[in-house]
């Protein structure tokens, strides 16, 4: 149980660091959402982010999954960072 908490805390710490980098690239604070066994980060794709697209992609690629979604307000870059799951004990 304690191992799971440490693992989740490590994922959350990584998510906060990546969100800070996304904030630098977009100029807007990203949204961080806890999901079952993962953390999701969403950032609005601003003009500033478009000028640094390669850097933005480099950050997104650090996620387990990532992409860009069209929303009514514009494009949103997102990434998920999954918590490593332990296999069954034998």
Automatic annotation (TrEMBL):
- At the top level, the lineage of the source is Bacteria
Q: What is this protein called?
A: Uncharacterized protein
Lineage, please?
Answer: Bacteria, Bacillati, Actinomycetota, Actinomycetes, Kitasatosporales
